[in-house]
Amino acid sequence: MKNIVIVGATSAIAIACAREWATKGARFFLVARNQERMEQVAADLNARGAASATVHRLDIDRLDDHAAMLADCAAQMDSIDIVLVASGTLPDQAVCQNDPAVAVREFHTNALSLIALLTPIANRLEAQRHGTLAVISSVAGDRGRPSNYLYGSTKAALQAFLEGLRARLFKVGVHVKLFSS
Ligand SMILES: NC(=O)c1ccc[n+]([C@@H]2O[C@H](COP(=O)([O-])OP(=O)(O)OC[C@H]3O[C@@H](n4cnc5c(N)ncnc54)[C@H](OP(=O)(O)O)[C@@H]3O)[C@@H](O)[C@H]2O)c1
Asked: How far apart are the CA of 10 and the centre of ligand 1, in A?
C-alpha cells in the first residue's frame, strides 16, 4: 500500500492520477485550498478503493502555514512513497505585464511558494531514503514566449530548482520527476 501526498489535490490532472492509485488501495493526504472540493475528491477516491484519504486545507502562499501541514502529514504517514505536486495557476499575461503586483503574486504562487514547500519535503524524503517527488511543470518553462512568459518564468525557476534537487536526492534513492505538457 502506497502513502501518497498530493499538493494541488483538486487539480484535474492530479485527480486522474489519484484515481489510478486509488484502485490499488493507496492512502492519500490531500492538500489544496478548497475544503469542500477536496472532501468530494477524497470521497471519490475512497469509493474507488483507496485505503484512506485525509484532507488538509492550505494556501501555499501562506508560508507560515506550511509547517502545520507537514506536521499533520507526518502524523498521518510515517513514510511517504509519492509526493505529487500539481498546484498552480495560469496567470493572465496581459494583466501581469501591466501590474507588477499581480506578476509578483503569480510568481510567488507558482514558484516561490513551491520552492519553500519542497525544501522540507525534500529533506524528509532524503531522511527516509526512498520515495518519488513528481512535479507537473510545463513546456512554457522551456523558453519565454510573448503570450505567457510570466507563467513560463515560474516553471523555468521551478525546473532549475528541481534539476538540482534531482541530482542531490538521486544519491540516496529518492527520485525527482518533472512532467511537462
Ligand atoms: N492543464 C494543462 O493543460 C496544463 C498544461 C501544462 C502544465 N500544467 C500544469 O499542471 C498543473 C496542474 O494543472 P491543472 O490544469 O490540473 O490545474 P487545475 O485543475 O487548475 O488545478 C490547480 C490546483 O492548484 C491548486 N492551487 C492553486 N493555487 C493554490 C494555492 N495558492 N494554494 C494551494 N493550492 C493551490 C488548486 O486547488 P485550490 O484552488 O483548491 O487551492 C488545484 O488543486 C499546474 O502546475 C499547471 O501549471 C497544466
From this structure: 8
| Structural domain contains residue 165 | yes
Is 142 in the same domain as 101?
yes
CA–centroid distance, residue 46 to ligand 1 (Å): 22
Residue 141, domain CATH: 3.40.50.720
Is the pLDDT at 26 greater than 90? The verdict is yes
Q: What is the pLDDT of residue 77?
A: 96
Considering only CA atoms, which residue is closest to atom 14 of ligand 1? 11
Q: Give the per-residue pLDDT at 86.
A: 98
Determine the atom of ligand 1 nearest the C-alpha atom of 59: 32
Read off the pLDDT of residues 83-120 as tens digits, 9 standing for 90 and up. Answer: 999 999 999 999 999 999 999 999 999 999 999 999 99
Measured at the CA of 68, the angle between CA 31 and CA 90, to 5 degrees, comes to 35
Question: Which burial class, exposed, middle or buried, applies to 75 when counting CB atoms under 10 A from its CB (0-12, 13-18, 19+)?
Answer: exposed
Structural domain boundaries, residue 50? 1-77
Question: Which residue's CA is minimally distant from atom 5 of ligand 1?
Answer: 181
- Ligand 1 neighbours, Cβ below 6 Å, are 8-13, 32-34, 37, 58-61, 86-89, 109, 136, 138, 181
CB-based contact 91:37 (threshold 8 Å): no
- Residue 60 and residue 135 in one domain: no
Helix (H) or strand (E) holding 32: strand 27-32
Question: Quick check: is 152 in a domain?
Answer: yes
